[in-house]
Amino acid sequence: MPMTMSANLANAKDAERSNNANVPSQIEFGVRLGKSGWTRDKGLKITMIEVCRDNRCPEGAQCVSAGNAQILFRFQVGARIRNVALNTHKGVNKVVIAGTGKPGMPANYVIRLNSLTPTPVVGKKTQTQLYTATLIIENAV
């Protein structure tokens, strides 16, 4: 009897791996301020709600540190919605969002803020409507 149980567990793990085999393990995802986008698997919707603050060192300036920008995102999986502020250099820059649990879909999405463009420039007002965040999304299956 223990052999059958072990074999069933092994078969279940193999089936889970094959169900998730078509899910890319890591993708780069860009989203503009006020816009939304879906991951390729259509399991996660990401909205860039606002840039809460942008204190990054401007191009053409000599700064002691790189500074930081904080961006508020809305992550939606099914009916579940979670708002999270992520940072470019200081503080939290990564979040784990639970997936749907459906076959072929990731169990979790690990999302890291990679960058925010445009970079501020000395003497110029940043055109906030052009803000674009680049996220790295890893699918934890």
Structural notes for this entry:
There is one protein chain. Helices cover 13% and strands 43% of the residues. The N terminus is likely disordered. It has a four-stranded antiparallel sheet with strand order 1-8-7-6, with no helix packed on it. The chain is elongated, with a radius of gyration of 19 Å. A hairpin with a 2-residue loop joins strand 4 and strand 5. It has a single domain, classed as Sandwich (Tick-borne Encephalitis virus Glycoprotein, domain 1), CATH 2.60.98. The two termini are 29 Å apart. It has 141 residues and is mainly β.
> DSSP strand (E) fraction?
35-45%
The ordered H/E elements are HEEEEEEEE
Question: Got a strand count?
Answer: 8
Choose one word for the global shape. elongated
- Supply the CATH class: Mainly Beta
Number of domains: 1
Low-pLDDT segments = 1-23
Write down the overall mean pLDDT.
Answer: 83
| Largest pleated sheet | 4 strands, antiparallel
Q: What name is given to the CATH topology?
A: Tick-borne Encephalitis virus Glycoprotein, domain 1
User: What is the second-level CATH architecture?
Assistant: Sandwich
Identify the strand order in the major beta sheet: 1-8-7-6
How far is the N terminus from the C terminus?
29 Å
Cα-atom radius of gyration = 19 Å
Label the structural class. Answer: mainly beta
